[in-house]
Predict the structure.
Amino acid sequence: MLAYTDFIILFLLGSMGAFLSGFLGVGGGIVYIPILDYFLGKLGFSDDNLVKAILANSLFTIIFSGSVSSYKQYKLGNFYPREILYTAITGMVTAVLMTMLIKSGTWYSKSVFNYVFASMLLVIALRMFFAAVQTSNTGDAIKPSGYYVTGFFAGIITAMSGLGGGVIMTPAFTDVLKLDIKKASAISNGVIPFFAVAVGILNLSTPSTQTVSSWQVGYIVFPVVIPMILSTFLFAPLGVVTSQKANQNVIRMVFATFVSIVFIKTLLAIIQQYQ
């Protein structure tokens, strides 16, 4: 059972994820994953089911953080429907297929998840810290295939990490397609809800093999996600507005710093497995 203080903590920590969702275009999963790891484990999910629950609840929360952030981008005139659609088409397919594969067995354990999660975060942090800021590109000359390929891999990462895909899309858009990081963030924010909704529907309709709450549908535990969802309506728009005013280098450094923090936390969890 969760205490009243747990709901307050979930709201406060969720607000950080919501702000980053808007500021960096990552969906907020960088913050949501460690939070869910702790609270879902506290509720009693076993190792075989914990990863499935973390992924399901993270992506369910990202439906709201990503949608609110994307709507704010639209209101600010920073919305790119063509690029969003191209990226979302392939990503939704791969996200759903990979989610089905994960749910089909017990091969994707907590230890495997930690290795995948940590490896991905390390690569992204190094790229964002050390890659030079590229000359701004409007994206008009970029072929749809660039967005299709990005979406394809982002969908797989979404299903395997629960991050929403933003951690792969934003670096890919800036470092490979050479987009301005603010446009990259806006496109990422627009794509993330499509991924999250597709996987969220699957998670809600798939029965869980373990029940830890009477307010649970599939692997979605509503007492855990609702406080975080509420925080998105306040802090995700704030993140978007702040991002539009910030310097590109500042955005990259904030992105890399938070990724590094989560990487260190995940690395410590891996080390504890062997103690």
Notes: DSSP finds ten helices and two strands in the chain. The chain has a mean pLDDT of 85.
